[in-house]
Design a protein that fits this description.
Structural class: alpha+beta
Number of strands: 18
CATH architecture of the largest domain: 2-Layer Sandwich
Helix content: 25-40%
CATH topology of the largest domain: D-amino Acid Aminotransferase, Chain A, domain 1
Bound molecules: adenosine monophosphate
Shape: globular
Largest sheet: 9 strands, antiparallel
Distance between the termini: 58 Å
Number of domains: 3
CATH superfamily of the largest domain: ATP-grasp fold, B domain
Radius of gyration: 21 Å
CATH class of the largest domain: Alpha Beta
Length: about 400
């Protein structure tokens, strides 16, 4: 198997603290990576679009600019001895350019495959990894073939730049397919059969440069409007589903030869089989609870893998649940949510806010985590704390 990273990324390389490391992308995933890397003693910085981006607010150093702008990348590479990303849509040429100069993890091949749904589906198909039936849609003829092969309902998803349900449209009948695709700007897309799933699961994997890999327990996820709403870990699934999910996630990380953190999202069907929905080559919203609940968080593992340090423990110290705090809460609260009320209700609630100045519907502003010996109880408590954020009269 070919290695995905460049000559500067040999597996034996250890970059010891307090070296400067950098993350491309200024959002909350970059912010939590920086916080974890700083705790390990690294001088952690960011390439962010603005100086008040969530990651820029906590970074030890910051380069402002677009992620694939050569002058910005050059300044960033002058500072960071090792580079990671917080999102997969960094242009492959930019990552290649960086990888020739700096330890860059994950490497361009992982990003190239996972930043495009068509390439990702082909990768899954080639490796015989179970996933929902799909067809490419790049012209009217392919759309017609897809509808004929998959039937309705189906989901059209743009091949590039989709996340949290953006760039997706549910097609209820064959007649709707054309208007659905037009609503996506007739962009190259995949048509995916509708999966009548019983549950959505995910597995976060951390993999080091020496091939050492660990998985966190399987997470059970619920979504609201296609956006993650809550996660519970470990998922209440049997040992066979657990083993299969972890085995598939590890096989994907190995097949991509990825170094760093990678998350695999699954549908669990009513018949108990697993279908891979999506691969994220980075820490994932469903792994945020590992900050409190695991020996080493997903962000610490990202820093360890990046720098060639041995991976930490992915064992849970306690079952846990996480609920997302979306901008809708601010809108419903008509201002600042009632933080004191939520925290007073349950001292076991850990509050994370990402420092975003403006709330918008569906915008991820923060999350809350609760540890409890009973994961269902952890979720009940986290949901109660979130409800307390909104005044009762509203
Ligand atoms: P994605 O961006 O592909 O992860 O999709 C976001 C969410 O949309 C998923 O977590 C599911 O809740 C839903 N979804 C996506 N694809 C399908 C599908 N083929 N069948 C049913 N629901 C889906």
């Amino acid at each position: 198997m070919t290695s995905e990273h460049g000559p500067s990324a040999e597996s034996s390389h250890i970059l010891a603290p307090p070296a400067a490391v950098g993350v491309i992308g200024g959002g909350q995933l970059g912010r939590m990576f920086i916080q974890a890397a700083q705790r390990l003693g690294y001088e952690a910085g960011v390439l962010a679009a603005t100086s008040d981006a969530p990651a820029a607010q906590v970074a030890s150093w910051c380069v402002i600019g677009p992620p694939d702008h050569l002058p910005a990348l050059r300044t960033f590479a002058d500072r960071a001895l090792a580079v990671t990303v917080e999102f997969e849509n960094v242009s492959a040429p930019a990552v290649r350019w960086l990888a020739k100069r700096r330890l860059t993890r994950p490497g361009w091949r992982t990003l190239w495959i996972t930043q495009n749904r068509l390439r990702e589906k082909r990768f899954l198909a080639r490796r015989a990894i179970p996933h929902a039936p799909w067809r490419p849609v790049r012209d009217d003829h392919e759309l017609e073939l897809a509808v004929r092969a998959l039937g309705a309902p189906l989901i059209l998803k743009t091949a590039a730049s989709g996340y949290d349900g953006k760039g997706q449209v549910l097609v209820q009948s064959a007649d709707q397919a054309r208007t659905g695709w037009i609503s996506l700007g007739r962009a190259p897309a995949v048509a995916e059969a509708w999966v009548d799933f019983a549950a959505e699961l995910s597995v976060v994997v951390a993999r080091g440069g020496n091939g050492q890999a660990v998985t966190y327990p399987v997470a059970l996820n619920t979504h609201d409007r296609h956006i993650l709403d809550s996660t519970l870990m470990p998922a209440p699934v049997g040992p066979i589903v657990t083993l299969e999910a972890k085995t598939l996630a590890l096989a994907i990380a190995q097949a991509l030869d990825t170094v760093g953190v990678l998350t695999v999202e699954f549908f669990l069907t009513a018949q108990g089989s697993l279908l891979v929905n999506e691969i994220a080559p980075r820490p994932h919203n469903s792994g945020h609870l590992t900050i409190e609940a695991a020996g080493s968080s997903q962000f610490e593992q990202q820093a360890r893998a990046l720098c060639g340090l041995p991976l930490g423990s992915s064992d849970l110290l306690s079952p846990a649940a996480m609920v997302n705090l979306l901008g809708d809460l601010w809108i419903r609260a008509k201002g600042t949510p009632r933080w004191a009320a939520a925290l007073a209700l349950d001292p076991g609630v850990s509050l994370h806010l990402y420092g975003k100045r403006t709330a918008a519907p569906g915008r991820k502003m923060g999350h809350m985590t609760v540890l409890d010996p009973d994961p269902e109880q952890a979720l009940t408590r986290a949901l109660a704390a979130r409800r307390a954020l909104i005044p009762l009269s509203i």
